[in-house]
Design goal:
By secondary structure, this protein is of the alpha/beta class. It has helices spanning 15-26, 40-53, 67-81, 104-132, 153-172, 191-204, 208-216, 228-239; strands at 6-9, 30-35, 57-61, 86-89, 135-140, 178-185, 188-189, 226-227, 250-253. The chain has a seven-stranded parallel sheet with strand order 3-2-1-4-5-6-9, sandwiched between helices. The protein has a two-stranded parallel sheet with strand order 7-8. The N and C termini lie far apart (38 Å).
Length: 260
């Protein structure tokens, strides 16, 4: 059912985004991967996906903080891959500071990339999905789209916005055979997270396992990281016919964090 469909995954050269791209390609979906850089390594990543999974995979450079780049990404992917029926909005950035010390330029950047880009790619992709009579929009929010932490006002606001946007779009498209859902991960083991562990060990004078369980995963009741493969598999499921009646739903993948 999914083989031969075309997908865009924003922010997908590493971490969660790459995990999603890999699992969609594994399902036979042609993938457009994206970041703001434009290096040989970026294009090789797409070539490797194509070779490994036997699908079409193309890298598209686009700065998701810029509305015109978001629109261009969808247009270029449609031109080179074919009609886009799956859109995964994953691009995101983070900055941590007390609200009274939060740099306005950081707030604006987080809102642009984490929230506004979701609007711009969606508004551009939906007409094509309507023409196809089928579509899947999957927005990667966060446990912070459902709950809050101090010092993350911009990130929490943006991710809550993504969940609200998801619900509204789902209602608009409910009779168009197009679903729109949000995936809300807790802590996921990515290269970025892995790189933080040695510094946390030094700061807290703890061994690796203790700092993971007692510091990094203190709010995640399972005390286990989700994996990028798990997030990718959930996205692939949401694209499947089995998930056709799931729409407007924030799906928690947070080890019980938001159940507390």
């Amino acid at each position: 059912m999914l083989q031969g469909k075309n997908a865009i995954i924003t922010g997908s050269t590493s971490g969660i985004g790459l995990g999603i791209a890999r699992q969609l390609a594994k399902a036979g979906i042609n993938v457009g991967i994206n970041s703001f850089t434009d290096s040989k390594e970026d294009h090789k990543l797409a070539d490797d996906l194509a070779q490994e999974f036997g699908v079409k995979a193309i890298y598209f450079s686009a700065d998701m903080s810029k509305p015109e780049a978001c629109v261009s990404l969808v247009e270029q992917a449609t031109e080179k891959l074919g009609p886009i029926s799956i859109l995964v909005n994953n691009a995101g950035i983070q900055f941590v500071a007390p609200v009274d010390e939060f740099p306005p330029q950081k707030w604006d950047a987080i809102m642009a990339i984490n929230l506004s880009s979701v609007f711009h790619t969606t508004r551009t992709a939906v007409p094509g999905m309507k023409a196809l009579g089928w579509g899947r929009i999957i927005n990667i929010s966060s446990a912070h789209g459902l709950t809050a932490s101090p010092y993350k006002s911009a990130y929490v606001a943006a991710k809550h916005g993504v969940v609200g946007f998801t619900k509204s779009v789902a209602l608009e498209l409910a009779e168009q055979n197009i679903t729109c859902n949000a995936v809300c991960p807790g802590y996921v083991m990515t290269p970025l997270v892995e790189a933080q562990i040695p510094e946390q060990m030094k700061t807290h004078n703890m061994d690796r396992e203790t700092v993971i369980r007692e510091v990094m995963l203190a709010r995640q009741p399972t005390r286990e990281f989700a994996t990028t493969e798990q997030i990718g598999d959930i996205v692939a499921f949401l694209c499947s016919e089995a998930a056709a009646q799931i729409t407007g739903t924030p799906l928690s993948v947070d080890g019980g964090w938001t159940a507390l």
